[in-house]
Design brief:
By secondary structure, the protein is α/β, with parallel strands linked by helices. Among the domains are: about 25-125, OB fold (Dihydrolipoamide Acetyltransferase, E2P) (Beta Barrel); about 150-295, Rossmann fold (3-Layer(aba) Sandwich); about 405-445, no CATH class. The protein has 10 helices and 13 strands. Helix 4 packs across helix 9 (about 280-395) and helix 5 (about 205-220) runs parallel beside helix 7. The protein is elongated.
């Protein structure tokens, strides 16, 4: 078998019009072209994702998502640049976090060891982030106003003495510690039901809403007077968690008043907009509850004092009236007793004169009545005796012994029941017949339906 022959032209490896790079050369060329093309750096906006610190450096990705794809660019923020940018972030109360929308500036950098493009960050535009937060907040607030949710919780009636409080907060936070300390030091008997929750970071809005919902179930059962949602101060983008539509909707639906104490005195979130009462800080929130309880206690004490004063005044007035009445009654009683004594003396004299004659008349009437009673009693006794004789004769006539003596008999069947018809017995039954002078036992041989004639014998 023959093998085909191959012929190669003696051409140079690199043609002048077809330049070939090594990987390293191409990486350097790309990096140089990027640096020259974006000599002054570049501004880029997106959402922070995968934020992490490594030593004094910060690394994250800037992402842009749409329905069909996702663009992603790695960002490096080295320690020296971070130190320069920190005052700017603090003055605008911003803290770099995942989910934060930013506009940053930096130098393009092509890392040839991995063939990866990134930006070395050196500046940030805080106004962009603040604007995004404000815009998002305004959109949510418009939807809530349109749906009528901003006023729902404000219509809930607050107990005049709100002591049973549900708290949605991070129990490890300084804000909760301040709130709790204020209530404890108040000296009032507050009862707290605490739903511990994260108040920042990924999923914080879902967890806060869930904690409020859990406490709302207790409010529906009547075991809570109010619910408090608190968080200490923080960066604006951290507090933006409480601009969540999910949290706002949950607060609006709670069946008892919701108090909010979120952030600093200058902050106001959407949660504050829909709450029954919005306070500036957790401490202020505790102070409001304490003031309401103190006002109730003060009103109660004032009412009690007013009642006591009124009762004392009424008692004094009644005592004066009673004294006057007793004085008048004593005078009238003395006069009445004197008049009664005079009448009694007169009646005694009259009685001494009239009593003998009245007694004689009464004795005569008693004697006459006695005679009539005796006469009537004797007549009644005689009549009832005659009736009794008649009844005795009738009873004697129906006495079974008398009837047996006349020739009648009583026959009983096997069960002891009186035989009244031939249908009450059957052949072979043992019969017992009671006669005047004894008893006869017999056995039924046969039965025959033949009624007695008028003389008491059979037709036969």
């Amino acid at each position: 078998m023959s093998q085909p022959a191959f012929e190669f032209d003696d051409l140079p490896v690199d043609e002048p019009g077809d330049l070939t790079f090594t990987v390293s050369e191409l990486a350097d060329a790309i990096d140089e072209r990027l640096r020259s093309g974006f000599r002054d750096g570049v501004w880029v906006r997106g959402e922070i994702n995968g934020f992490k610190r490594s030593g004094q450096h910060v690394y994250f990705s800037l992402v842009e998502k749409d329905r069909r794809s996702e663009a992603k660019l790695d960002i490096k923020l080295f320690a020296n640049k971070l130190a320069r940018l920190t005052p700017k972030l603090r003055s605008n109360r911003l803290d770099l976090r995942d989910g934060m929308k930013v506009r940053i500036h930096g130098q393009l950098d092509f890392y040839k060891q991995r063939g990866a493009l990134s930006i070395v960050m050196d500046d940030i535009d805080p106004r962009y982030t603040l604007g995004e937060i404000a815009q998002s907040r305004d959109e949510v607030l418009k939807r809530l106003i349109a749906s009528g949710l901003t006023g729902m919780n404000k219509q809930q009636r607050l107990s005049p003495i709100p002591l049973r409080i549900g708290v949605a907060a991070s129990v490890e936070s300084a804000g909760f510690a301040d709130f709790h300390s204020e209530l404890v030091n108040s000296g009032f008997g507050f009862e707290l039901v605490v739903a511990d929750t994260r108040v920042q970071g990924d999923g914080a809005d879902r967890m806060v809403a869930g904690s409020i919902g859990t406490l709302a179930r207790g409010a529906r059962k009547g075991v809570l007077d109010a619910i408090v949602v608190i968080r200490g101060g923080g960066a604006k983008n951290e507090l933006a968690v409480f601009d969540s539509e999910r949290i706002a909707t949950t607060i609006a639906m709670v069946p008892c008043p919701v108090f909010t104490g979120i952030g600093h005195e200058i902050d106001r979130t959407i949660a504050d907009e829909v709450a029954h009462t919005a306070l500036k800080t957790p401490t202020a929130c505790a102070g409001e509850l304490i003031d309401r309880v103190a006002a109730y206690v003060n009103d109660t004490e004032m009412a009690f004092e007013a009642i006591a004063r009124r009762a004392l005044a009424l008692t004094d007035a009644a005592d004066h009236r009673l004294t006057d009445t007793a004085r008048r009654l004593a005078g009238r009683t003395t006069a009445a007793v004197e008049r009664a004594d005079e009448r009694l003396t007169m009646r005694r004299a009259q009685l001494a004169t009239l009593a003998p004659a009245a007694l004689a008349k009464a004795t005569d009437r008693l004697d006459a009545t006695t005679v009539r009673v005796l006469e009537r009693a004797n007549g009644a006794t005689e009549r009832e005796s005659s009736k009794l004789d008649v009844f005795a004769a009738r009873v004697s006539a129906v006495d079974p012994a008398v009837q047996l003596a006349r020739g009648w008999s009583i026959t009983r069947g096997p069960s002891g029941a009186i035989v009244r018809s031939v249908d009450d017995v059957a052949p072979g039954d043992a019969l017992t017949t009671d006669l005047f002078d004894g008893r006869v036992t017999s056995t039924v041989e046969s039965t025959d339906h033949q009624p007695l004639d008028s003389e008491g014998s059979n037709d036969d």
